[in-house]
Each structure stands twice: as C-alpha cells, then as structure tokens.
C-alpha cells in the first residue's frame, strides 16, 4: 500500500515538473518572440517598466479621478467655464504659434541663407531669448508697459495694454520663437544645393525654387518647431497668470487654490484631451509625406544677396533681438542694481538659491540614472514593449506642471503620506516633467555607439545590465551629462509645480520671482531672475552645438 502511494506521489511530481517545464518553455518562447533580437536581462526590463509607469502615474490618476467628479460638476463646468477656457487657450495657442513660426522661419532664412554682416554672431544672439523664462519676460514688460510703467512715466500714458490678449500673445511670442529659429536653422544647414541647382536648370526663378523646393524640405523642421511652441503655450502658467489672462493651466491652479480638486481634475481631463487632439492633428497634417535627400554628394546651399532688402532685414533682426532680449535684460540689470544697493543679496537670497539647486540637482541626477536603462532598451532591444515604455516615459513632458503636481498630490496624500509635504515631491515632479530631456541627451550619444561593442561584451559573459553600466555608460557620458544639465536648468525655472508642492517655508528662486513681482518688489525679483538666466546659458550652449 505504501509503495503504491509512493509511486502515485512520484508520478504526480513528475507530471507537475513536466507541466512546469512546458509552461516555462512556452513562456520563454513568447518572451523571446516579443523582442526582435535576443531578450534583455529581466532586471533591465523591470527597472524600465517601473520607471515608465511612475512617469505616467500622474496622468493616469488625474484621468481616473476625473471620472468620479460627478455628472453635475461636469455639466456645470461644461456650461460655464470650459467653453471660455477653450476659447482663451486655443486662440492664444494659434496666434502665438503662427507668430513665432513666421518670425523664427524668417530669422533662420535671413541668417543662414542671406548675405548679412555678423552671421555667426546672430546665430548665437537670436537664440538667447530662450534662456529667459516667459514669466520673467512678463515681469519686465509689466515694468515697461504697465499702467504705471516706464512708458507711462515718459509719455504720460501707456500706449499698449500689456494686461490683454495681445499683450500675452506678444510676450509669449518673443520668448518662444527661438524653438522654430534653432530647428529651422539646423535644417537649412543640412540642405543640399543640388536640388535647387536642378530646379534652376529647369528654368525656375529664385522665388519659385524657395517655395517649391526649399520650403517642402524645411517643412518637417518648421512643423517640429511649431508643435514645440504650441505645447509650450498650452502648458504655460507663469506668463499668463502674471498678465492676468485665464487659460486652462491658470484655471486649474486657482481651482486647486480654492481646494476644489475634483473640478481641477475635470479641467485637467479636458486639457489632456485638447493636447492629444493637437498632437493628433499635427501628425495627420504630415500624412505619409516624407522628405528625404537622396543625393550622396552634399553641397552647401548658395548664399543669396538681399540687395535693396538688406537694410530692412537688419532692422527687423535688431527689432526682434531688442524686444526679446536687450530690453528685458536692461530692465533686469537696472532693478538688480537697485536690489543690490538695497541689500537684496542677503542670506535669504542664498537660502532660496540653495533650495533651488538642491531640488534641481536631485531631479537631474535621478533623471540621468533612470534614463539610461530606457535609452538602452529602446536602442538595443526594439519591440512594441519598448515603444510603449518610451511613450509612457514621455507622457509627463506634454503636461503642464500644474497637472503633474495635481496627480502627485493625490497619489502621495493617499498612498505615501509619510513623504507628503516634503521637498522630495518637488524633485519627483521635476523628474516626471523633464526626464525626456535626459532621454534625448542619452539617445543622441548612444546612436553613435556601434551595437557590436555590446555584442562583444555579452560574448564575454556580461549580462545586458552590466554591459550598460560598465561598457556603454563611459562612452555616452557626455550626452548623458548634457541631458542632465538640461533637466537641472529646466527644474530651476519650473514655477507651477514648485508653487503647489513646496512645503511651508521652502521657497526657490522661481517662487521668489513670482511672489516679489506680484507685490511689485522688482528690486527683489530682478537678482533672482538674472541668476536663473545666467545658469540657463549652460544648456543653450549644448543646444547650439547640437543644432
């Protein structure tokens, strides 16, 4: 009897082991089939999966919470606030995107294609407005054009109402056109003159060549710059709030200030749908068109003579540079001098600077570490899975800091209360917002490293995670550090997420600019603004080298 029981147990164990081996074999088969090449190490997959989910959690949670806001709240907002917010936000986005695109393309064409004195200098100078946060630019124009500003003191009246739709559109245009200028300039430098020469040999005039040959080749670059401007305007909070113009981002912020978080989630949901709609519309306008330069012999495009248009072109360039950089910097230097004389650079200023550097450094270091596995997986193990991970990791970049902060508040308040109310939450928001900048820096460097280096390391017995940190990281370190520098500076300037998530008594330079400027203490706001601008020159140098 015992022998029979023992035999049955052995048979059961054999069947169980056989089933486990079959399941394991089937799992491995599907796991390996998921990847176009060999499967990555499980630890690498785990790290990238967790990172991407954390990056997308605020988005998912805000969407989830909006469904529990209640039908009455949805209908009330749809009947009252949402239509006006849609009108304000869309009209501002359209006007600023159009204006910044026209200015950016014209400046890129004049600097890169036309015979102008100081071409190299203008390539640098016209990109400088990018280092001025729009909320700082708004402060300078309030000082100049406000109801009691410099123009009022000189002329006895203000000829232009800065607290208006056109005032907001003007300020945002002046500080966003460099996105289009930089990307379009880069595309012009890479254009092959052979296509224009072929068109000229067919009898086309210079104007026809520019419209029918050059413009189609530049269209992807112009579109990329325009969508960056549109997304920035959609997510901007500081400038629109400073100039008392209401869009979705400022409405969400003030809704949270009145402790009506459910209404804030409803507005956030509408904003997310609006953003997705704009991205979808942009992708549909591209269609299946592709503009590829097939010639193997590259020739630099010809420089055009402006002739009678040279003086107007120089005046136009000076005007844009003066309005977007010289005037704001002059105003800040004037008030910074007043502030230094009145003791603005006291111990509190350096505490604010230290706070800014602390939370931004945490975000930059964490972003560099977290971006490495994602970049490596995307490059070396392409699949649908890595595509999903990549998209999730970029989700926070298309959202304003207000919505990211809203999602973080819900999550940490309910599930991680011991961290709620600490400055760590600010760094988490920065990571979610700006991790894609670190990803871009790593991707650009890794694309130059041959996959054969990885294969050689793996042939020596290194797992994929060890190849990444021991072999690949030393080779792509400059790009990773450049991406980290971008995250650091973007975090220094981030305003809405910091305003919402900062614990009591924890102020940063961006917050002090907001608070002091709101109280018309311009001598206090100017030194902090200049500090942010000077530090922002670091990533600008990297971008100019890249483009």
How would you describe this protein?
This protein is mostly helical and 547 residues long. The protein has 2 domains: 39-59 and 343-547, MetI-like (MetI-like fold, Orthogonal Bundle), CATH 1.10.3720; 69-294 and 309-341, MetI-like fold, CATH 1.10.3720.10. Helix content is 78%, strand content 0%. It has 23 helices and no strands. It has helices spanning 2-34, 42-66, 71-79, 81-113, 119-125, 134-145, 150-155, 165-189, 193-201, 206-235, 238-242, 248-257, 261-286, 310-341, 347-380, 384-394, 401-415, 424-446, 451-459, 464-493, 496-501, 509-518, 522-546. The longest helix is centred in the middle third of the chain and has 34 residues, at 347-380. The chain is globular. InterPro entries: MetI-like (IPR000515), MetI-like_sf (IPR035906). Belongs to the binding-protein-dependent transport system permease family.
Strand and helix layout:
Elements (H helix, E strand, L loop, with lengths): L1 H33 L7 H25 L4 H9 L1 H33 L5 H7 L8 H12 L4 H6 L9 H25 L3 H9 L4 H30 L2 H5 L5 H10 L3 H26 L23 H32 L5 H34 L3 H11 L6 H15 L8 H23 L4 H9 L4 H30 L2 H6 L7 H10 L3 H25 L1
Subcellular location: Cell inner membrane; Cell membrane
Membrane topology: Multi-pass membrane protein
Protein name: Iron(III) transport system permease protein
């Amino acid at each position: 009897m015992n022998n029979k029981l023992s035999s049955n147990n052995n048979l059961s164990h054999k069947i169980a082991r056989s089933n486990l081996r079959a399941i394991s074999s089937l799992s491995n088969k599907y796991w390996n089939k998921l990847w176009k090449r060999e499967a990555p190490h499980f630890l690498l997959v785990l790290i990238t999966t967790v990172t991407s989910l954390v990056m997308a959690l605020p988005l998912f949670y805000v969407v989830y919470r909006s469904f529990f806001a209640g039908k009455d709240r949805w209908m009330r907002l749809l009947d009252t606030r949402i239509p006006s917010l849609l009108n304000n936000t869309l009209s501002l986005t359209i006007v600023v995107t159009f204006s910044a695109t026209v200015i950016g393309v014209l400046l890129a064409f004049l600097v890169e294609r036309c015979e102008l004195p100081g071409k190299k200098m203008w390539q640098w100078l016209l990109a400088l407005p990018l280092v001025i946060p729009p909320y700082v630019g708004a402060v300078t124009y309030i000082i100049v054009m406000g109801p009691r500003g410099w123009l009022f003191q000189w002329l006895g009246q203000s000829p232009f109402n800065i607290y208006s739709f056109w005032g907001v559109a003007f300020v945002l245009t002046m500080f966003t056109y460099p996105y289009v200028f930089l990307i379009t300039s880069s595309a012009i430098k890479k254009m092959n003159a052979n296509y224009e020469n072929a068109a000229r040999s067919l009898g086309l005039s210079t104007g026809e060549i520019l419209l029918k040959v050059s413009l189609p080749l530049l269209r992807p670059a112009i579109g990329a710059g325009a969508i960056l401007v549109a997304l920035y305007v959609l997510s901007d909070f500081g400038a629109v709030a400073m100039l008392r113009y209401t869009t979705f981002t400022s409405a969400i912020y003030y809704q949270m200030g009145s402790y009506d978080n459910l209404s804030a989630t409803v507005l956030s949901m509408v904003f997310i749908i609006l953003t997705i709609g704009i991205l979808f519309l942009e992708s549909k306008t591209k269609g299946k068109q592709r503009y590829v330069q097939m010639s193997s012999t590259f020739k630099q495009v010809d420089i055009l003579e402006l002739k009678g248009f040279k003086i107007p072109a120089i005046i136009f360039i000076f005007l844009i540079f003066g309005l977007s950089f010289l005037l704001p910097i002059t105003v800040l230097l004037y008030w910074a001098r007043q502030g230094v004389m009145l003791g603005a650079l006291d111990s509190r200023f350096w505490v604010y600077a230290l706070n800014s550097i602390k939370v931004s450094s945490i975000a930059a270091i964490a972003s560099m570490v977290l971006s490495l596995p994602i970049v490596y997986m995307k490059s070396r193990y392409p699949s649908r899975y890595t595509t999903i991970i990549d998209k999730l990791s970029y989700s926070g970049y298309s959202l304003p800091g207000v919505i990211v902060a809203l999602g973080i508040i819900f999550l940490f308040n309910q599930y991680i209360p011991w961290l709620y109310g600490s400055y760590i939450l600010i760094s988490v928001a920065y990571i979610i917002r700006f991790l894609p900048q670190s990803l871009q820096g790593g991707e650009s460097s890794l694309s130059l490293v041959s996959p054969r280096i990885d294969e050689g390391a793996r042939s020596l017995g290194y797992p994929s995670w060890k190849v990444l940190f021991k072999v690949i990281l030393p080779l792509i370190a400059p790009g990773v550090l450049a991406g980290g520098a971008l995250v650091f500076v973007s975090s220094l300037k981030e305003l809405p997420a910091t305003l919402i998530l900062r614990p009591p008594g924890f102020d940063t330079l961006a917050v002090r600019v907001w608070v002091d400027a709101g109280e018309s203490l311009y001598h206090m706001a100017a030194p902090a603004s200049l500090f942010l601008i000077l530090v922002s020159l670091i990533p600008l140098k990297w971008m100019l080298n890249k483009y």
